[in-house]
Amino acid sequence: MTRPIHIAIAACLMGVMLAGCKTVDDGIVRTNEPTPPELTAFGDTFKGLKTVSDVEFYASDEAVAQATNQFRQGNYGNSGAYFYKAVLLAPNDGVAWLGLAASCDRIRRFDLADKAYRHAFQQLGPTPEYLNNYGYSNLLRGDLQAARNNFLRAYELVPNDPTVNNNLQLLSSSVHNIER
């Protein structure tokens, strides 16, 4: 008669042990571990967090500022590296893509510039800045007709912009030098 008692006790112990286990979808039995605090019913709330509109600083802002500074100093390789960091941090930042494209133009990596210009256009569209920069890229590549078309489109949008006007003047002097 002691045998059924031993079986009953063993069954109870087995039931207690199995209560501390769970089966996962992959069929492997794992022990229950305590839920991390951030996933508890009290720790998974978003109350108190700032929304994106409340944030004054974005991670890519610093990289863009450093890149712009390097570009103005003529350190185009460094500016390209910072703009690349910025587009990794904020892939929808059209200004960062445009800066990356301009940096690539200056180090004559037109293959990379073309990729960056495509991303910039997707984010910004045909803005005067985009058209002017892409026109300058065409000028650096020797495609004077494409440069003229882009500069004129930018001029139509902002006729008093000194950068666009200077680039049109630069294009004009380039054409005169070719004709001589």
From TrEMBL:
<dbReference type="InterPro" id="IPR011990">
    <property type="entry name" value="TPR-like_helical_dom_sf"/>
</dbReference>
<feature type="signal peptide">
    <location>
        <begin position="1"/>
        <end position="19"/>
    </location>
</feature>
<keyword id="KW-0802">TPR repeat</keyword>
<feature type="repeat" description="TPR">
    <location>
        <begin position="128"/>
        <end position="161"/>
    </location>
</feature>
<protein>
    <submittedName>
        <fullName>Uncharacterized protein</fullName>
    </submittedName>
</protein>
<keyword id="KW-0732">Signal</keyword>
<dbReference type="InterPro" id="IPR019734">
    <property type="entry name" value="TPR_rpt"/>
</dbReference>
